[in-house]
Write a structure and sequence with these properties.
By secondary structure, the chain is of the alpha+beta class. It has 10 helices and 5 strands. Strands 1, 2, 3, 4 and 5 form a 5-stranded antiparallel sheet that branches. The longest helix is centred in the C-terminal third of the chain and has 24 residues. It is elongated. The two termini are 16 Å apart.
């Protein structure tokens, strides 16, 4: 199981970036180490990206790497347009684009080890599982992104949390037209855990999980079945809350506007931040 020392301390974060100053500095230090000090040239003229990491760790907020990471966090947290980010940081829109293109992959790579895989999960721990759509623009070359269930385009992910509501696992993204049950099976989660103890909605009927009883054709549910469904739905609010918290990173909640080929990397960057810095 992956462990993370950041989860052992409370974090009030920052209203604009979600991370507090020490966490942003930690992320800066990790990227500096990951790149062996060879930071991207993007924004170097206006943001001074080659300034010594030792000065960054001393707490200077005017230095380029710190500022660039804050720009990325603001973009991910609020899904702001590049034009607005350029105005906020008093740089050009092309510079913002270059910084995002350079640093989002670095964040994803640097924090990848913090994102739990199916192999990291405790097979005896009971989980609540659900799927959700991460919306994006409609790309003519990708009709598979259209979700008939949600009546929009995007990618779907499977999300699991514990009975205490702690986010435990997120699958890799699937095209928006993928059914939840198909996505769950393809994620290999059911191959690694005892599916009979895990809880899902009616969309997972047939997977061997604990799911609500479907109303049969021709008659109502028995009182005992209604009571069972009520108990399941009472528990399932935890996964709905976990997904809602995941989507407080607005890049996962409102239309993703950058090229579709960059979406998975962006999702991984956000997940890396969440699993690394969320207590």
């Amino acid at each position: 199981m992956k462990t993370n020392h950041h989860k052992n301390k409370p974090s009030v974060g920052n209203a604009s970036t979600k991370l507090d100053t020490s966490e942003v500095l930690d992320l800066c230090a990790g990227i500096h180490t990951h790149t062996k000090g060879q930071l991207p040239a993007a924004g170097s003229r206006t943001l001074g990206l080659f300034t010594s990491i030792r000065l960054i760790l001393s707490g200077s907020r005017t230095l380029g790497l710190f500022t660039s990471i804050r720009l990325i966090l603001l973009a991910l947290r609020h899904n702001l347009t590049q034009e607005l980010l350029a105005e906020i940081f008093e740089i050009s829109q092309p510079t913002v684009s270059r910084i995002i293109n350079a640093y989002v992959p670095l964040i994803a790579e640097n924090l990848q080890a913090q994102i739990p895989t199916v192999e990291d999960l405790d097979p005896t721990q009971q989980l609540i599982i659900d799927g959700t759509l991460l919306p994006c623009w409609s790309w003519r070359r990708h009709p598979e992104l259209y979700s008939g269930k949600h009546h929009t385009t995007g990618v779907t992910i499977q999300v699991a949390c514990t009975l205490t509501g702690r986010l435990a696992w997120v699958s890799h993204p699937f095209p928006g037209n993928t059914h939840d049950l198909t996505a769950l099976k393809d994620s290999r989660l059911l191959d690694m855990i005892n599916q009979t103890i895990h809880i899902g909605d009616k969309g997972y009927t047939g997977a061997g999980m604990i799911t609500p009883v479907k109303k049969p054709a021709g008659h109502e549910l028995y009182d005992s079945e209604k009571e069972f469904n009520k108990k399941i739905n009472t528990i399932r609010y935890l996964i709905e809350r976990s997904i809602a918290q995941l989507k407080t990173w607005r890049i996962l909640h409102t239309d993703y506007r950058r090229p579709y080929a960059t979406f998975t990397t962006t999702i991984n960057a956000v997940l890396g931040i969440i699993f690394t810095y969320t207590p």
